[in-house]
Fold this protein.
Amino acid sequence: MNYSVVLASASPRRTMLLDQMGIAHTVKPVDIDESALQNETPQYQVARLAKQKAETALARLKAEGALTENTLVLASDTLIAFNGASLGKPEDKEDARRILSMLSNNEHEVLTAISVASSSNQVTQTITTHITFAALTNDEIDAYWETGEPADKAGSYAIQGIGGQFVKAINGSASAVVGLPLYETRQLLREFGVV
């Protein structure tokens, strides 16, 4: 079956990664409440959010009369986990300093969940990548904050941007850290008959 792939994300990085894979798609971002549930682990949260984004996109396409049996929705969510807790976007400079100080000279996990859904099937998978940060000084953290990059990033950094200079080692999928694991996405789409 020739599927029409819909990316349920406004992320330019996810669009770029799908383009890099040669997968034609349309972009239909969805907004959902991404708050953690009580006692929810980061692994459960990231999978739940990706699944919910795909379901929300399918429901919206159905309501618009644009859902066909050839429609395939791809959704993704990425969280930073440190010592078993999710690290979201910083509230302000002090919060970014707190987060980056925790990550400094430590290992943390980047969890990226992908969910592929059709009108009759949905599969969700989570990919874990281990990141080791270099030791950061307060001056380095403050200078990084002044670039504006950490303000809207989970974990207060962007590996594909200026924050990449703080990453000492990556064990796992580098593309998952950017927002879409290339290998796993290709395998999942292949299960549905794409690529």
